[in-house]
Design goal:
Layout (H helix, E strand, L loop, with lengths): L45 H10 L6 E3 L6 H8 L4 E4 L3 H18 L4 H12 L11 H9 L6 H13 L3 H15 L5 E2 L6 E2 L9 H19 L7 E5 L12 E6 L14 H6 L9 H7 L19 H13 L4 H22 L1 E12 L1 E3 L2 E3 L1 H10 L3 E13 L5 E11 L1
Length: 413
């Protein structure tokens, strides 16, 4: 990557230290106990967090403003740190809480035997379906998300979990939640719109939940004791992060990429099943609180974006060529949103705090959007000195052109 021709005047030092490419993706976590409980394709590797913690051993207060499924919080807890996080999607925030706080409580209360015995009930198929007026059933009636009877069995399974003791309940509910999409007619990509065709058939729900429960029991038994810190949710929308006390020493995060991932809608089955939203229509509220990283986030209900000249240059080119006016609107809104996050995070950081930010660039209608450079420029306006931009791996755009994933390294001034 050429970081010598930046689009802005922010103080940037180039660094060509290449971090192993696997650190930028979730893949390794699929083999790690507890991290594997919710395979979150948009997540990064726990090893990225571990390497940052190793690099800054003096850091005590850690923050991830885009907590996602809790990779940062869990990796920090495994190294004995508490971690503040914010996350706009209540389901993902709950996943992080379960993987850290509930898993720790489960480990200290010998929960694995109970998880294994619930698994046996699921294998026997002794789960009565619940065919009530539940939002999941309503949504399924309209949209056929599941094969016949599966939604009712999922609700029956959740009801069974509710009878468990508190130390086990949320782990069991997560086993059900993570089984919903593999047992549905849907494929989870950046959104949850595509139906299976040519992909494997939906997995049978109850054996899948049983397998998850046995895996969870195994992980609690073998790795539960390694969790020695807490995940502390301090907010929902990172733009509105409250001022934290004590101030933060180290921020490790990966914000939404400008690639249209619809972070709330692609978890709508879990949000509905677990009662986080009463109706699909409530996704709109979450969409407005989400960083504008997709054209679906663009709405007249949003505040006007703050204008930044370097962003305008790219957005104006897109005004000319984009097939949808929401594309340049999204570019303007994304960097304006992220600038607000940079300001909020800065308010909660002590001077000289380090911010490691994983991000990738994008391309729309043939126009390259150097997201990393523009983000670095926005952060520099809010009190961050950009120390370096380090390549993590190369990626491909939808049109086949080469894109990058990088780690921006910043220091609070
Ligand atoms: C790339 S993912 C983070 C993944 C995380 N590092 C992990 O490994 O699980 C970005 C996250 O930002 C969240 N998000 C989007 N807008 C947000 C906002 N305004 N405030 C807080 N979180 C937000 C999304 O819901 C998503 O979970």
């Amino acid at each position: 990557m050429n970081t010598t021709q930046l689009l802005f005047d922010a103080p940037v030092a180039t660094s060509h230290k290449t971090i192993a490419r696997r650190l930028g993706v979730f893949d390794d976590n699929r083999r790690k106990p507890i991290h594997r409980w919710y395979p979150f394709v948009e997540g990064y590797s726990a090893d990225l967090v571990a390497s940052a913690l190793g690099e800054f051993p003096e850091a005590q207060v850690i923050l991830d403003p885009f907590g996602g499924s809790g990779t940062t919080a869990l990796a920090a807890a495994e190294h004995g740190y508490d971690c503040y996080f914010s996350e706009v999607n209540p389901y993902l925030a709950w996943v992080a809480d379960v993987k850290v706080n509930k898993a720790r409580a489960a480990a200290s209360s010998n929960a694995s035997a109970e998880l294994t015995s619930i698994a046996t009930a699921f294998v026997r198929g002794s789960v009565p379906p619940v065919d009530s007026e539940h939002p999941l059933i309503e949504a399924d009636r309209r949209r056929r998300f599941f094969p016949d009877g599966v939604a009712a069995h999922a609700l029956g399974a959740l009801q069974l979990c509710d009878d468990c003791r508190p130390e086990v309940r949320d782990l069991a509910r997560l086993a059900v939640a993570t089984s919903l999409i593999p047992a549905s007619n849907m494929i989870r990509r950046t959104d949850l719109r595509k139906r299976r065709s040519g992909d494997p058939d939906p997995a049978p729900l109850l054996p899948l939940i049983a397998k998850q429960l046995r895996d969870f029991a195994h992980d609690i038994e073998t790795a539960g004791h390694t969790i020695d810190g807490q995940a502390v949710r301090v907010g929902s929308d990172a733009r509105l992060l409250p001022e934290l006390n004590p101030l933060v020493d180290l921020i490790i995060t990966s914000p939404p990429y400008l690639n249209g991932t619809n972070y709330c809608r692609n978890t709508k089955l879990e949000l509905l099943a677990l009662g986080f939203i009463p109706d699909e229509r409530n996704l709109m509220d979450l969409r407005l609180a989400t960083i504008a990283a997709g054209i679906n986030n663009i709405s007249k209900k949003r505040e006007d974006p703050t204008v930044m000249p370097a962003v305008e240059e790219i957005a104006c080119r897109l005004d000319e060529v984009a097939y949808d006016p929401r594309i340049p609107a999204m570019i303007r809104m994304y960097f304006s949103d992220m600038r607000q996050v940079a300001a909020a995070v800065r308010r909660s950081s002590r001077p000289a705090a380090t911010w490691l930010l994983d991000i990738g660039d994008s391309r729309f209608c043939g126009v390259h959007v150097p997201t990393h450079e523009l983000l670095a420029a926005a952060a520099a306006l809010e009190g961050w000195f950009v120390e370096g931009i380090e390549p993590l791996r190369s990626r491909r755009s939808y049109d086949g052109s080469e894109l990058a994933q990088v780690l921006i390294r910043m220091r609070a001034v």
